[in-house]
Write a structure and sequence with these properties.
Bound molecules: NADPH dihydro-nicotinamide-adenine-dinucleotide phosphate
Distance between the termini: 23 Å
CATH superfamily: Malate/L-lactate/L-sulpholactate dehydrogenase, NADPH binding domain
Number of strands: 12
Number of helices: 13
Structural class: alpha+beta
Largest sheet: 7 strands, mixed
Strand order of the largest sheet: 2-3-4-11-5-6-7
Strand content: 15-25%
Helix content: 40-55%
CATH topology: Ribosomal Protein S8, Chain: A, domain 1
CATH architecture: 2-Layer Sandwich
Radius of gyration: 19 Å
Shape: globular
Order of helices and strands: EHHHEEHEHEEEHEEHEHHEHHHEH
Number of domains: 1
């Protein structure tokens, strides 16, 4: 793969220019461009510029509203429903996070239920933003079927990601963000493009046979859950939270509503925020930090998020696939 070195600002500019040229207004383009450039900076290749062609396809097909203005409804003091106005999720998340944080700080626990939006990104930004407010965050979303439930050979769940963050005042929060599939589909797409093999147990081919060929899993095959039936149960919980409780599409419903333009599918996102100051009371930070310090000092252990935080602190150029950059430049 030939790469080209770009700064984070250049990646942001390229993403924003492409989004503006293809139907987003400034507010929507900037929110999605921030998500894309921060993913590239964090080394999350499959959620950076790699996703942009999909964003552009959905703007061109008219599926996604590039002029979205999210609108909230306070169901109760601690439950906020946010209508994403058929826009990309980053704007809804940026708009809804301060509302959610304020509700959690007041009530101890609050939920943000995002409907009618299109999620195509990593899930750490939403929970990390809550942790920066000294709140615990948990988020999950669904899209369209691409993962087989444990025991099945056909897709029913999406790769159903879940993220969690716990604040550590004065330090980086504890953050994990993971697909409940053995591998995220974006990473399988990157492996298929770059000719890399997948670890055994990642997926099945179109005939339902186990394979390590990324192309066979990506094109017509199916991804398997992580951890067998345990991953399958967590994926089920995510469908129930992000679709059942939010009141938006389950993965198997979203695919029927989708125009298959190659971009994200409509769906909901469930975001829970909890205040340790209210729930645990004074001393929570030292108490929890003692536990996490014991954990991270154990030989062989590294905390999730650590690699990403280190990558995010770099300010040098980022190597990006050259063909992708050239094709995006021609879309501006
Ligand atoms: P990974 O398996 O790469 O990483 C999952 C988590 O594990 C990360 O928090 C990572 O931290 C941590 N981790 C990795 N290795 C170690 C280790 N050795 N020790 C401790 N922690 C570790 O992510 P996935 O492939 O599962 O998911 C990739 C991304 O895809 C996620 O951001 C997810 O949100 C996104 N996604 C989005 C979807 C959508 O619909 N929008 C659908 C599915 C996935 P670190 O980052 O520091 O390495």
């Amino acid at each position: 793969m030939t790469t080209v070195a770009l700064s984070e600002a250049e990646i942001y500019d390229l993403a924003q220019t492409c989004l503006l040229a293809n139907g987003c207004d400034e507010t929507n383009a900037s929110a999605s461009a921030r998500t894309i450039s921060s993913a590239e900076r964090a080394g999350a290749v499959s959620h950076g510029l790699f996703r942009l062609p999909g964003y552009l396809k959905s703007l061109k097909s008219g599926k996604v509203n590039g002029h979205a203005r999210p609108k909230e409804t306070h169901l109760t003091q601690s439950a906020i429903r946010l209508d994403g106005d058929r826009g990309f999720a980053p704007l809804a998340i940026e708009y809804g996070t301060p509302l959610l944080a304020a509700a959690a700080e007041q009530s101890g626990v609050a939920v943000l239920l995002i409907r009618n939006s299109f999620h195509f990104a990593a899930l750490w930004p939403e929970v990390e933003a809550l942790a920066r407010h000294n709140l615990v965050g948990l988020a999950c979303t669904v899209h369209t079927p691409m993962m087989a439930p444990f025991g099945a050979k056909t897709a029913f769940f999406s790769t159903n990601p879940i993220s969690f963050a716990y604040p550590r005042p004065g330090k980086d929060p504890y953050v994990f963000d993971m697909a409940t599939s053995a591998k995220a589909r974006g990473d399988i797409g990157v492996a298929a493009r770059d000719g890399h093999e997948l670890p055994p147990g990642t997926g099945l081919d179109s005939a339902g046979n186990p394979t390590t060929d990324a192309k066979k899993v990506h094109d017509g095959g199916v991804i398997l859950p992580f951890g067998g039936y345990k991953g399958s149960m967590i994926a089920t919980m995510i469908e129930l939270l992000a679709a059942g409780l939010v009141g938006d599409y389950f993965s198997y419903e979203a695919v029927k509503a989708d125009n298959r333009d190659g971009g994200p599918a409509i769906g909901g996102e469930f975001i829970l925020a909890m205040s340790p100051e209210v729930l645990a009371g004074p001393g929570w930070a030292e108490h929890s930090d003692g536990f996490l310090t014991e954990l991270e000092n154990m030989e062989g252990v590294r905390l999730p998020g650590q690699r990403r935080f280190e990558a995010s602190r770099e300010d040098g150029p980022i190597e990006v696939n050259k063909d992708l950059v050239n094709s995006l430049r021609s879309a501006t």
